[in-house]
């Protein structure tokens, strides 16, 4: 079994590198919001009546929803996040939710919207694990320059599989992933990000293209 040393921030890192590290919080924020919507669905969807007598446990859904949309609002009535899908299925044997053609969006404190889409999503009962399968894309709007703060470009994560652990604040994938930040682009065969330790590991064939900034 191979081991990987955590990536250390080099001495003398500039503002741009610190901003890039902060922007890597994106997966945790998105998956956490998606988990919140999934948890709400599990807790509020109707339960099938329990049958009397011993029965063999089968992996069959006990209820489903079609073309659904779950929205959460703040105290002022403003939309904060939304989870949509074509079909949602609840499996009582594993207490999991499976959502087809999932689309999630959430608004951060800075007003920017984060959007996550995939062909299929799978969440456990408490939302501590959320998996995105098939053309998983997570994007965040750019942030224009603010007084005393630098601008932040559009962020995007792409892959066929992303697995988020919302309680331990980890995101990983054992399949190829692509990270796009503005005009910069990074690819790897696998990735693991630990928000608590602030360590990003990109494994396998890692490539990066950094574009020079255009002076205005």
Would you mind describing this structure in some detail?
- There is one protein chain.
- The protein has 2 helices and 12 strands; from the N terminus they run ααββββββββββββ.
- By secondary structure, the chain is mainly beta.
- Strands 1, 2, 3, 4, 5, 6, 7, 8, 9, 10, 11 and 12 form a 12-stranded antiparallel sheet that branches.
- β3 and β4 form a beta hairpin.
- The longest helix has 19 residues.
- It is globular, with a radius of gyration of 19 Å.
Kindly report the average pLDDT value.
77
Radius of gyration equals 19 Å
Strand content: over 45%
Helix and strand pattern: HHEEEEEEEEEEEE
As a percent range, the share of helical residues equals 10-25%
Instruction: Give unreliable regions as ranges.
Output: none
SS content category: mainly beta
Main sheet record = 12 strands, antiparallel
- Give the number of DSSP strands: 12
Number of helices: 2
Structural shape: globular
**Terminal Cα span:** 50 Å
């Amino acid at each position: 079994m191979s081991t990987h040393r955590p990536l250390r921030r080099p001495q003398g890192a500039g503002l741009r590198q610190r901003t890039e590290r902060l922007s890597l919080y994106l997966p945790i924020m998105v998956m956490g919001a998606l988990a919140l919507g999934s948890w709400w669905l599990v807790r509020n969807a109707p339960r099938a009546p329990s049958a009397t007598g011993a029965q063999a446990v089968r992996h069959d859904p006990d209820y489903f929803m079609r073309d659904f949309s779950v929205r959460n609002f703040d105290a002022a009535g403003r939309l904060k996040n939304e989870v949509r899908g074509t079909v949602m299925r609840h499996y009582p044997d594993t207490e999991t939710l499976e959502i087809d053609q999932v689309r999630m969006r959430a608004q951060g404190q800075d007003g920017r919207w984060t959007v996550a889409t995939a062909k299929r999503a799978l969440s456990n009962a408490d939302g501590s694990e959320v998996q995105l399968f098939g053309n998983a894309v997570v994007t965040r709007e750019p942030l224009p320059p603010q007084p005393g703060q630098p601008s932040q470009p559009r962020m995007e994560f792409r892959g066929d599989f992303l697995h988020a652990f919302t309680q331990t604040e980890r995101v990983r994938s054992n399949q190829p992933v692509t990270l796009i930040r503005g005009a910069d682009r990074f690819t790897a065969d696998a990735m693991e990000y630990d928000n608590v330790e602030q360590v990003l590991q990109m494994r396998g064939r890692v490539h990066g293209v950094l574009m020079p900034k255009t002076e205005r």
